[in-house]
Structures are given as C-alpha cells and as structure tokens.
Specification:
The complex is a heterodimer of chains A (122) and B (92). Chain A is built from six helices and no strands. With 122 residues, chain A is mainly α. Chain B has one domain: 30s Ribosomal Protein S19, Chain A, CATH 3.30.860.10. Chain B has a three-stranded mixed β-sheet with strand order 1-2-3, with helices on one face. In chain B, strand 2 and strand 3 form a beta hairpin. The radius of gyration of chain B is 18 Å and the shape is globular. Classes of the chains: A mainly alpha (122), B alpha+beta (92).
Chain lengths: 122, 92
C-alpha cells in the first residue's frame, strides 16, 4: 500500500497507471512524473523504494494541485461564475450545459435522468 | 480560436465615448448600450450599463471580475418559465 497525496491507495499497478488514481493526475501528468523522476514506466508501485515514493510525493506537492485543493478551486470557480450573474453562471445554476450545446435533445449528463412528462401517452 | 492580441480587445466606439462622458459627469446613470459584443474594459468598472437584450436594457453594474468578458453575457436574451403542468392531458 502506498499513500500518495492524502487518502489515495493504489497498489500493484504500473506506476503511471497507479498515479492516475489521484484526482488531478491523468496519464499525461503521471507519465511526466515518471520521466522526470527516472522511474521506469513498467515498474509497479509496490516495487518502488521509500526514496522514490517520497520523491513522487514531493514532486506532486511542488508541481501539481490535487485532490481537495483542486476540488475546492473548481467549485470556487463555478461559484464565482454563479455569483457574477453572467450567462455561464446562469447555466450552472440551472444545471444545463454551459458551453452552448443543444438542449432540445440530449444534454442528459447535465440534466440527469429524463423525467416523465405528464400526459404524454397515446 | 481566440482573438489576436495585437488587435487589442474589441469595443464598439460609441460605448467608449458614452462611458467617458458618464465618467466625467460623475453621475451614475445607466448607460444604454446595444453592443452586446463589446468587451468589458478595466475603465468601465463601477459604471452601470443598460445592456440591450432585444427587448429592454438590463442594468449591469460592472465589477472587477467582469473584465474581459462581453456585455452580452450579463443580459440574458431568453426567458424560460418552465413547462406549465401540461394544461390538459392530451389523449389520442
């Protein structure tokens, strides 16, 4: 078990894969970390020694924003838009797509599961 | 694609003139503008603009955070009252 950036415990996977379990680290960042710290891409997380693990932790702390901080920043950004009263904020408030997608059909990700319309039956 | 930097932000000329005038007179009146596509500039902060939404001028008090966005973003053009609980059940 390796504990990186707080609560995350990815284990016997290859390092670049395991690192993506941290919120805020995708495969791009994960590969970059491996490259800069000279960690072979095929090594597994449980094969790393403590020095390498702490190097990863330091790298993440110094260069990226992950987990709680990232989530907080994202929600603050959304809140800022909502307080501003601009179009994007309105869309966030309404729970509709923000970037100009159609809402006539689709948009189910933002709108959630479809609700039955009263009286629409043959 | 974003706008080229060498062009600077786009603002309709008359908006600048009106803003200047309002600034000089010192009175905080609503400045009526129709140019929704104009960028909000730093010197507009604190002024109130009436941004036309196709029907009427929506008063917008410009704050610091709005700089760089367009006036149109603060003046919604559509009204949506939601679906009324569909009048009668239409049956076929």
């Amino acid at each position: 078990m390796a504990r990186i950036a707080g609560v995350n415990l990815p284990t016997g996977k290859r390092v670049p894969i395991a690192l993506t379990y941290v919120h805020g680290i995708g495969s791009g960042t994960a590969h970059k970390i491996c490259q800069e710290l000279r960690i072979p891409l095929l090594s597994k997380l449980n094969e790393l020694d403590d020095v390498q693990l702490s190097a990863i932790r330091e790298y993440i702390a110094a260069n990226t924003m992950v987990e709680g901080d990232l989530r907080r920043e994202k929600s603050m950004n959304i809140k800022r838009l909502m307080d501003l009263g601009c179009y994007r904020g309105l869309r966030h408030r309404r729970g509709l797509p923000v970037r100009g997608q159609r809402t006539h059909t689709n948009a189910r990700t933002r709108k959630g599961p479809s609700r039955a319309i009263a009286g629409k039956k043959k | 694609m974003g706008r080229s930097i060498w062009k600077g932000p786009f603002v309709e000329g008359y908006v600048l003139k009106k803003a200047e005038k309002a600034r000089e007179s010192g009175r905080n009146e609503v400045i009526k503008i129709w140019s929704r596509k104009s960028t909000i500039l730093p010197q507009f902060v604190g002024l109130t603009f009436g941004v036309y939404n196709g029907k009427k001028h929506i008063p917008v008090l410009v704050s610091e955070e709005m700089i760089g966005q367009k006036f149109g973003e603060y003046s919604p053009t559509r009204t949506y009252y939601g679906h009324a609980a569909d009048k009668k059940v239409k049956r076929k």
